[in-house]
Amino acid sequence: MALKTGEQYLRSLESLNISAHILGRPTGELAGHGLVQPSRQAVAFTYDAAHDPATRDLFRVVSPLCQEEVNRFTHLHLSSQDLVNKVKMQRHCGASTGCCFQRCVGMDAANAVYSTTFDCDQKHGTSYHARFRDYWAWVQRQDLVVDGAMTDPKGDRGKRPKDQVDPDLFLRVKERRPGGVVISGAKLHQTGMLNSHEILVMPTMAMRPGEEAWAICCAVPVNAPGVRYIYGRQASDTRKLEADTLDVGNPVFGGQEVMTVFEDVFVPDERVFLDGEVEFSGTLVERFASYHRQSYGGCKVGVGDVLIGATALMARMNGVDKASHIREKIIEMNHLNETLYACGLACSHEGRPTAAGNYLVDLLLANVCKLNVTRLPYEIARLATDVAGGLLGTLPSAADLANPETSPYLLKYLAAQPDYQVLDRVKVLRLIENLTAGAGAVGYLIESMHGAGPPAAQRIMIERQAGMEAKVQKVKGLLSIA
Ligand SMILES: Cc1cc2nc3c(=O)[nH]c(=O)nc-3n(C[C@H](O)[C@H](O)[C@H](O)COP(=O)(O)OP(=O)(O)OC[C@H]3O[C@@H](n4cnc5c(N)ncnc54)[C@H](O)[C@@H]3O)c2cc1C
């Protein structure tokens, strides 16, 4: 099967016939929906990039699993260079779309499931790994998008799954039938779900003995009976439905998150990759989270490139680009953005092979990367807001620019540095608004905070991985303390 183009990918989604509730209405025609289309275009970019002569070498890789050339977004990393190339690919996608392009979660989930199923089989004599290999070889050959579904609703955060008032607040195996299991529950915040072909379900946290029903990892097609979708809102999202899309900010691309409900969904045995393996649920979560924390050292840096570029252009348009404090601020934005990239590259370079053979990032450095991602994009956004000026929050609408009664005033009073048109200045302001306070801020800021887990989760991992005892011993040795 040849690698799909963006167009072939978009056509492949149509045959899935999925529908969703969007803004309170059931919607069958997702392809043409104004809220969905930009997010599909962003995923389509990941397909087209594998055909673009400038990037095809970065996006294509031969997979030993299926013996074919595959898109790197479906690849199982086989070296630390593969991990580095993943981050470079993600930065390119972020910088080219200016948004979350949604295809990373499935890639990160697959790499985690691959090594975890291997380890589980080694210890417990199970046969999950061969199943997963067969499944993933099929995904690679078909060049599919797979949603990585980890986050459960979790109900009362102070209680374990079995102590919740409703056991479905953590997705679980509700029933066993000949040939498979029936799952029930929900996954929240699912990135790119309606642009996916498959869902790879994982437990949301380390389970304990007695919580076997919630220790389930399996795959279901997006159009499996019983799966329901409710579309997530983003700030200013309905601007995408307006006739003139000038106020959207990012005219072509966008992100997507979807609440996904599993109402008694049957999963055949061949798609079950961990069932009741409480001991390995924590391993899976830890590995997935670490790959995904590495990812943000690429994708968010790419989106940061767009925000920095827009801010520098805004400064030129306002005639302040030569001012020393503005140049300092843009230097600082670059410094922060490249710090994130350095973290993404560092945890990749230090990657090591798992027992299964695929490479895992350095856990400590991946968590440092993500903890920085929970902070630095907010500072970059703050500096962009400073440089852009107050119009970022007060600019009249595209409709006012088009209205002959108000347009002359806008053209007169929004003029700044004379080399630039007012319309172009408005475009740049709207793009900065999109990324700092609009729909794009979901991907650039809120996802930077919570995606792959909130800051406390990274701190726990840093404490675990920091090798404190070795550091204490070094000091004792240095000072001859027994
Ligand atoms: C834009 C976006 C995209 C996402 N995409 C995906 C995706 O594709 N797939 C996916 O599976 N998930 C996805 N997520 C989910 C993401 O992983 C979660 O949002 C994250 O793990 C935090 O979980 P939560 O939202 O339930 O917040 P909570 O867990 O409620 O966290 C809120 C706060 O409470 C604290 N807290 C939570 N529980 C406890 C506790 N027991 N004790 C003390 N403090 C606690 C946290 O540290 C945090 O400060 C996405 C999230 C966002 C925002």
Describe the structure.
The chain is of the alpha+beta class. The protein contains 17 helices and 14 strands. The mean pLDDT is 98. The N and C termini lie far apart (64 Å). The chain has a domain of 187 residues: Butyryl-CoA Dehydrogenase, subunit A, domain 3. A hairpin with a 2-residue loop joins β6 and β7. The strands form 5 sheets. Strands 5-8-9-12 form a 4-stranded mixed sheet. Strands 6-7-11-10 form a 4-stranded antiparallel sheet, with no helix packed on it. 49% of the residues lie in helices and 15% in strands. The structure holds flavin-adenine dinucleotide. Flavin-adenine dinucleotide binds next to β5, β7 and α15.
Overall mean pLDDT: 98
Coarse shape? globular
Might you state the CATH topology name of the domain at 282-468?
Answer: Butyryl-CoA Dehydrogenase, subunit A, domain 3
Backbone structural class:
alpha+beta
Layout of SSEs?
Blueprint: H1 6-14, E1 20-22, E2 25-27, H2 37-48, H3 56-59, E3 60-63, E4 68-71, H4 80-97, H5 104-124, H6 128-142, E5 146-149, E6 172-177, E7 180-191, E8 198-201, E9 216-221, E10 227-231, E11 257-268, E12 272-275, H7 278-318, H8 324-349, E13 352-353, E14 359-360, H9 363-373, H10 376-388, H11 391-394, H12 398-402, H13 407-413, H14 422-437, H15 440-450, H16 455-465, H17 468-478
Parallel strand pairs: 5-8
Antiparallel strand pairs: 1-2, 3-4, 6-7, 7-11, 8-9, 9-12, 10-11, 13-14
Helix pairs in contact: 1-2, 4-7, 4-8, 5-6, 5-7, 7-8, 7-9, 7-10, 7-14, 8-9, 8-10, 9-16, 10-14, 14-15
The protein binds flavin-adenine dinucleotide.
